[in-house]
Amino acid sequence: MLVSLSVMYMKTDSFYRTLLMHHEFSDMIKVKEPREWEVKYVKLTDDIGYYIADQPFKDGGFDLYMDLAATFPIMTDTNRGDCRDPNPFATIHLPHWCCVEVFRLMRGYFRTWFDNKPIEDLMLTEWGNLYFKEESFPWNYFRLPHVDGPQGLVSNLWFTTNPDSGTKLYKYHGDIIKGDDNKLYYDFMVNEDHKLFKEVKHMCTHMERLDGWKNLSADEERHYGFECVGIAPCKKGTMTLYDTEVSHTPYIEDTCDFRWSHAYRVSERYGW
Prior knowledge:
Helix content: 10-25%
Strand content: 25-35%
Oligomer: single chain
Strand order of the largest sheet: 3-4-13-8-15-7-6-5
């Protein structure tokens, strides 16, 4: 069920008023129960893998949700000007009422992951990732794999299918260190004696903007201590989920013109 954007929004003078108010959301877009959600684990190594699930909405809710998400503006774009947001994509955010039931589904299905803690005791974070090939000019430093924080689960709900794209997952052959701020850092970022410390510091402090998307080569992956163990696919109408402590990075071939997903992270409450 597709709903046109003109139906979703009504203009009042210079403002736009959404016809789908937060108190109407759960009536129009229903999220599945954990027992209804089809989830499969894909094992890559003994301790690294990812889950692939069907989309979390009942009936025609997925198409309506996608249309609703498209009505929210791009709020941050690291590809423009001197913006140094660590996300290499154009980013949108959805209000809490658009996401809380998806968070509840993740927490409900993976409840043992979070020691059965109620959702109120967990940290919930969301953001949308939009890749436009002709507008992609990311900072070179952000090509390095990263982790999304300690003790959590992160997912991507895919709004596009891109066989030439996905999320690369890595084994890091080094140490990942938790800082006093509860963020996770690779040893080459904080250990001044590490052979790559000066190189990475220079890359970070003298940031170079690329003239287009550029994946890490296999030689570069090895140089920085990363071993690619698999790629989580980018397929419309699915969710891919993985541990927030697993190193990963977007993978996008030159044949991909547009890519869109919305990410949801559920994690332990920390001050980061």
